[in-house]
Amino acid sequence: MLNRLDTSLRGLEDSEAQGGRFDIRDTVNFVWRQWAFILAWTILAGLLGAIYIARQTPLYTATTQLLLDPRKEKAAGPDSIYTDTALDLSVVESEIAVMRSTVLLKRVVLKEGLLGGSGTPAQPPQTNAGSTSAQPAPGGESDDAMSPAMVAAVEGLKNAVVISRAGQAYVINVSYTSDSPARAMQLANAIADAYVVDKLDARFEAAKRASNWLNDRLVELRQQLRLSEEAVTKFRADNNLAQAVPGASLNQEQLTQLNGRLVAARADTAERKSHLDLLTKIQAERGKLDALPEAASSGVLADLRRQENDLSRQEADLLARYTGAHPQVVNVRAQLSDVRRSIANTLRQIASDVRNNYNLALARQDAAEQALKEASGQSDLDASKAITLRELERTAAVNKSLFEDFLQRARLTQEQSTFEARDARIITPAVAPGIPSSPKRTQIILTSLILGLIVGIGAAYLREALNAGFTTPREIETLLEMPLLASISRFSPRTKDENGRLLSLPEYPLRMPLARSSEAIRSLRSAVQMSDVDHPPKVVQVTSTLPGEGKTTIALMMATSAAQSGQNVLFIDCDLRHPSASSQLRKEKAPGLIECLLGEIELEQALFYSERYRIWALSAGGESKNQPDLLASERMKALMAKVRSRFDVVIVDTPPMGPVIDPVIVSNLVDKVIYIVRWAATAREMVQQSLRQIAGQKKVAGIVFNHIMDDKAKKYGRFAYGYYYGSRYYRKYYEK
Question: Which residues cross the membrane (predicted)?
Answer without folding.
Answer: 35-54
